[in-house]
């Protein structure tokens, strides 16, 4: 029962949006995933611990502890872990540059890919303000973009000091844009723009709970998804290929394997090698789904393909 599963070793793991400390966190699936994968480097791409929620009531079951222990054990076994705080674990931004139990805290990082490309790794909430006001910023030019980024940080520090909840981009998007697909597309475009400003070939982020991997905006855009609903992770294999894994699909396979194993009789070793689940192709929305409400944003035309899994861009982001 406690037999270690066959472990897949990858070059890098990118994980985000665990929201530990909330009931939504799928800690059991996450622990199962962490048992199956070992990596040279793990990037924790923000919203790992949900500090905003913890303040309004302590929720910290054993499984959430187990996730933390599992990560610390990996550090002891030689994995390099880099933690890039998000908006829900923004309290850690005060510790950027520090090291906790071997876990390095950074605001953002540049990942040198095995494919020879460089990737900006960042949670992504830094762009909420820009995504919201993209329409105006396009008029006002480059300085406004920088100003919006700075304002975003400032506003959230003030909100945090006042004990307010985090203002949610995705909740706003649902109300305001009617169609969250527009918002996902804008977010993806903003992050891709930022990668270009950093003069790198791609960006790897989280925040909107919508796993993705594409090159629609001139650079590679990779989103790690979340462990509240979609249970997704991004791996970089040693050959340089990136892949989105969906662990909920994998769970189905695990239980059917177990059933098959029981039927065949005990004592037999079943090859429990988890198969990588390929990223779902982004379904294309009907053109008339895109409402005129946000129609003037520069990114909207390209946003229509971003997919129908809009429930992933949840209020927790
Ligand atoms: Mn976030």
Automatic annotation (TrEMBL):
Q: Which GO terms describe its cellular component?
A: membrane
Gene Ontology biological-process annotations: lipid A biosynthetic process
Q: Where is this region: Disordered?
A: 255-317
GO MF terms here are: metal ion binding; UDP-2,3-diacylglucosamine hydrolase activity
On the tree of life, the source organism's domain of life is Bacteria
Q: Which UniProt keywords apply?
A: Cell inner membrane, Cell membrane, Manganese, Membrane, Metal-binding
Question: Which residue stretches does the UniProt record annotate as biased composition, category Polar residues?
Answer: 303-317
- Pfam families, per the entry: Metallophos
Annotated ranges, domain Calcineurin-like phosphoesterase: 11-210
Q: Could you identify this protein by its name? A: UDP-2,3-diacylglucosamine pyrophosphatase LpxH
What is the organism of origin for this protein? Pseudochelatococcus contaminans
């Amino acid at each position: 029962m406690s037999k270690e599963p066959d472990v897949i070793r990858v070059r890098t793991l990118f994980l985000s949006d665990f929201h530990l400390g909330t009931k939504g966190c799928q800690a059991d699936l996450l622990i199962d995933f962490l048992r199956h994968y070992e990596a040279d480097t793990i990037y924790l791409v923000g919203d790992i611990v949900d500090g905003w929620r913890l303040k309004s009531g302590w929720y910290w079951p054993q499984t959430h502890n187990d996730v933390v222990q599992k990560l610390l054990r990996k550090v002891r076994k030689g994995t390099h872990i880099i933690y890039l705080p998000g908006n829900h674990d923004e309290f850690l931004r005060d510790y950027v540059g520090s090291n906790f139990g071997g876990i390095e805290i950074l605001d953002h990082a540049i990942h040198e890919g095995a494919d020879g490309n460089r990737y900006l790794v960042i949670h992504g909430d830094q762009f909420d303000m820009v995504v919201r006001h993209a329409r105006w910023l396009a008029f006002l030019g480059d300085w406004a973009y920088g100003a919006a980024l700075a304002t975003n940080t400032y506003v959230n520090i003030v909100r945090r000091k006042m004990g307010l909840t985090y203002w949610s981009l995705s909740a706003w998007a649902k109300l305001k844009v009617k169609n969250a697909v527009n918002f996902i597309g804008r977010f993806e475009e903003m992050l891709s723009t930022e990668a270009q400003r950093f003069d790198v070939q791609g960006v790897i982020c989280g925040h909107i709970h919508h796993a993705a991997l594409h090159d629609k905006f001139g650079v590679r855009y990779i989103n790690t998804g979340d462990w509240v609903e979609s249970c997704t992770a991004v791996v970089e294999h040693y050959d340089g290929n990136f892949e989105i894994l969906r662990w909920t699909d994998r769970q189905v396979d695990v239980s059917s394997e177990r059933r098959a194993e029981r039927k065949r009789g005990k004592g037999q070793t079943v090859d429990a090698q988890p198969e990588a689940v390929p990223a779902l192709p982004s379904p294309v929305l009907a053109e008339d789904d895109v409402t005129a409400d946000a129609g003037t944003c520069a990114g909207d035309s390209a946003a229509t393909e971003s997919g129908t899994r809009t429930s992933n861009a949840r209020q927790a982001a």
